Amino acid sequence: MSGARAIFDADAFERQTGGDASLRSEIIRMFIEDCPVRVEEIRAAVARGDADALVSCAHALKGSAAYLSASIVRGHAADLERLGRERNLTAAPALVAQLDAAVAQLLPELRKAHGD
Known about the structure:
The protein is an all-alpha fold and about 120 residues long. The chain has one domain: Four Helix Bundle (Hemerythrin (Met), subunit A), CATH 1.20.120. It has helices at about 10-15, 20-50, 50-70, 70-85, 90-115. Helix 2 (about 20-50) runs antiparallel to helix 3 (about 50-70), helix 3 (about 50-70) packs antiparallel against helix 4 (about 70-85) and helix 4 (about 70-85) runs antiparallel to helix 5. The mean pLDDT is about 90.
């Protein structure tokens, strides 16, 4: 799979949490609860044309996705944050669609890792 990135790098996440299974479980649980809310906030900010809200929401999602080693979601959130900072939301709807697709792949992987 040259060039392909995993939606969730469980090994990197394990290293990030120092091998603490309880910590990993809690972080995954919190992300599963928080991520849909963050994505909806991003979607609403784009619909309103609110660049400041987009920056804030995308930045928060970017950070939590990075800690989880969910690089694709992190990358889309970073791109949306950049658009907000540039105050050019023209490409934002397409990026939100890409974020939605990545989150739709990520959440089942996290639920599986969490044992749900």
